[in-house]
Amino acid sequence: MNKQEVTFFWFRRDLRLDDNVGLFQALQSNYPVIPLFVFDDLILDSLPKNDSRVSFIYDSLSEINDKLHEIGSSLLVKKGKTAAVWESLIEEYDVKEVFFNKDYEPYAIERDTVICELLEVNKTVSYSFKDQVIFEEKEITKADGLAYTIYTPYKNKWLDKYRSKLPVEEFDTKARFFSFYKSDFIFPSLEAIGFEKSIIKVKPHNLKFVVDYQDIRDFPAIDKTSYLSPHLRFGTVSIRKLVNWAFRKNDVFLSELIWREFFMQILFSFPKVVTNNFKPAYDGIQWRNDEDDFKRWCSGTTGYPMVDAGMRQLNETGYMHNRVRMVVASFLCKHLLIQWQWGEAYFAEKLLDYEMSANVGNWQWAAGTGCDAAPYFRVFNPEIQQKKFDKDGAYIRKWIKEFDLGYGKPMVEHAMARDRAIATYKAGIVK
């Protein structure tokens, strides 16, 4: 029996039908296109059954499947070890081509190398495309071809290159939807994948406040953030559409999107930063790593209202305001002298918008161990941060219900902690 000749488009961090580069290219194929998503056991096995990000991925896939149903197609959803899934698909279909968009994290690069080798052995052609960034890998480099490790010159070159390409091309996939494979694949329940609905939800993104971003971004009580970050992480929005829009609307917001790509190219060029200090000179710092102190930080019971409100917001919602992220990260690394990897891992578990490059990059920035990081002697004073950015206590009262009943004593005195941190860094940094 002859097997059906098909092309696959493999969804990963690009959960949308609109302006999707790899999908656009796949739909030019001479073969019917099967859209595929694989729930990877190697990732899922380490997650709790009510993981909020899995729920968001599932809901996003369900929306894609509903749209495909309107044109007589559907999404093929598989679960298992990725290589085994592809082996079964090759067995079932005559797979002529596979299209996908690139991912730049270490595990993804390793996974994709294995899959492409498997496809090649089976005489299947694979194509990968840039989709989740404007500029990838080695497109923005110094004159010697090496990666930038300082943000400002990277940003300047990024902007020069972007301006030379205005507007960045967007890809209209809708005109080729007739190329989808006509199918009625059964869309699995979340329970069939081994998970359950999370009570923590990803909020819809909203750009209406971005025009005033520079004026409101540091005030956590003002609920006027874009909520874009989880959507960027999982690709439910197009970075090209977003950057083209931001370029016209707000330079400060655009700079934040460029920071995202800066940290992605740092991770790609220096994969050691996932677990190791970017600056080896900081390897000698003697961290306290007190487990009881860490538990108090995690639970939001440090006695510093700004820190505690941030951690409680994170634990209850999966979100934390960006200004507060800096405060809580600095507090863990500097006040408590707990190494950044502990905080990075906790954020990775809790954040709806967890993205390895940004999480590692920002934690190393806060700890002083990263590229273009805050200097080691910069120690945020949580009380001053509160007075500057939440002077009326609206943010704090939202997340600390008992605040007005008499709040607890700080677990560590700021002046002492600051002096201890600076002394410890001085002693540990290799000159």
Automatic annotation (TrEMBL):
Q: Which sequence ranges are marked TM in the entry?
A: none
- Cofactor binding remark: Binds 1 FAD per subunit.
Q: Which UniProt keywords apply?
A: Chromophore, FAD, Flavoprotein, Lyase
Give coiled-coil spans as residue ranges. Answer: none
Q: Which residues form the signal peptide?
A: none
UniProt name for this protein:
Deoxyribodipyrimidine photo-lyase
Q: Which residues form the Photolyase/cryptochrome alpha/beta domain?
A: 5-134
User: What are the residue positions of the site described as Electron transfer via tryptophanyl radical?
Assistant: 287, 340, 363
The Gene Ontology biological process terms listed for this entry are: nucleobase-containing compound metabolic process; response to stress
- The EC number of this protein is 4.1.99.3
Claim: Lyase is one of the keywords in the record = yes
Q: Which Pfam families match?
A: DNA_photolyase, FAD_binding_7
- What are its cofactors? FAD; (6R)-5,10-methylene-5,6,7,8-tetrahydrofolate
Q: Which domain of life is it from?
A: Bacteria
Positions of FAD binding: 213, 225-229, 253, 256-263
Family designation: Belongs to the DNA photolyase family.
Gene Ontology MF annotations: deoxyribodipyrimidine photo-lyase activity; DNA binding; FAD binding
- Keyword Hydrolase recorded: no
